[in-house]
Amino acid sequence: TLSHMSATDHSSPDCWELAVLGAGLSGLAAAHRLGELCAKASRPIDLTVLDAGTRAGGSIGTRRVGDYLVEKGADSFITNKPWAVDLSRRLGIEDRLIPTDATYRRSLVLRNGRPVTVPDGFALLAPAQVWPVLTSPIFSLPGKLRLGLEYFIPRRSGDADESLAAFVRRRLGREALERLIQPLVGGIYTSDPEKLSLKATMPRFIEMERKHGSLIRAMRASPPESAEAGAHASGARYGLFATFADGMSELIDALAKRVSATGTIQLNTKVAAVRANAGDLAGERRWCVVCQDGS
Question: Which of 45, 52, 65, 93 is the most exposed place for a label (fewest CB within 10 A)?
Fold first, then answer.
């Protein structure tokens, strides 16, 4: 709506009061976009971002421990979806982006308290090679046999959605989910696979099952060039990921600085309710944000 507003539109007050609830990445990005659109429309705003926490950024945060940068939440973002790179460009920090180091592009999971490399060619939910899986200490012998049976399990009929966990158990077995795929997926989505929609998160695996009847069969049927690339991948497609030289907090800090230049970020403020009020202008609906302290 804001992108179509003009400076000569007199149906709204001279200054819009706008509130954004939450100063995590989504909230800060939304507040920043509001500022951009209103500036473009020459529309003055009174913008407040409210957050119950003591710092902006939500689950995203970077700490330095000795010589290491340690991320509390997301450690990177994927670049084949353009919006994060575009946001970095608009914030003037695109030159701070760095790719992953090809030397260390691999995933490890803990097994019996020790980090173990994910088998070569195991692309999140589908193994591209047999031998690395057979020799991996991640799986027990029954678990490896169950993985091999995936080739013969019939494809699912119908178009109903299922959780990512249910899909993995059905095709690859419980051990594959618990020992490998849950930690890999949890590291990407920071969420429980039991609650993740397969259609929303990894729809290409639905298509692989639908077209080939088996994930293993689908991987083996891939074109030679993509099969060769997948054969040496371990976990996610790390060549598509980027972060900032001083960690993901750079993005949060840049957003917070830009938002604070035109509005207010109010921390330690928990919102108790949002209520719809009757508008004081014809056809306009207004809102009341009620904070826990009564304000």
Answer: 65
pLDDT level of residue 2 (50, 70, 90 thresholds): very low
End-to-end CA distance of the chain: 28
Q: Reduce the DSSP state of residue 279 to 3 states and report it.
A: coil
CA-to-CA separations, 137 to 118, 124, 171, in angstroms, rounded: 10, 17, 21
Q: What is the predicted pLDDT for the residue at 230? A: 45
* 25-40 vs 83-91: helix crossing angle, rounded to 10: 60
Cβ(233)–Cβ(219) below 8 Å: no
Give the helix/strand (H/E) hosting 69: strand 68-71
Residues 6+ apart with CB under 8 A from 60: 24, 25, 71, 72, 73, 74, 248, 249, 251, 252
**90 touches 36 (CB < 8 A):** yes
Q: Is residue 45 classed as helix, strand or coil in its secondary structure?
A: strand
- Measured in whole angstroms, the distance separating CA 36 from the mean position of its chain's CA atoms is 24
Whether this model's pTM surpasses 0.85? no
Residue pair 144/134 in contact by the 8 Å Cβ criterion: yes
- Distance in angstroms (rounded) separating the CA atoms of residues 85 and 82: 6
Structure confidence by residue, pLDDT tens digits, 80-121? 889 999 999 999 999 999 998 888 778 889 999 999 999 987
The confidence band for 236, taking pLDDT boundaries of 50, 70 and 90, is: low
Q: Say if CB 163 and CB 195 are below 8 A apart.
A: yes
Helices (H), 202-271: 203-212, 215-220, 224-231, 249-262
The token duo for 17 is: 């009061």
Backbone angles phi, psi at 129, to 5 degrees: -130, 150
Token code pair at residue 74: 């997301």
* 197 beta partners: 163
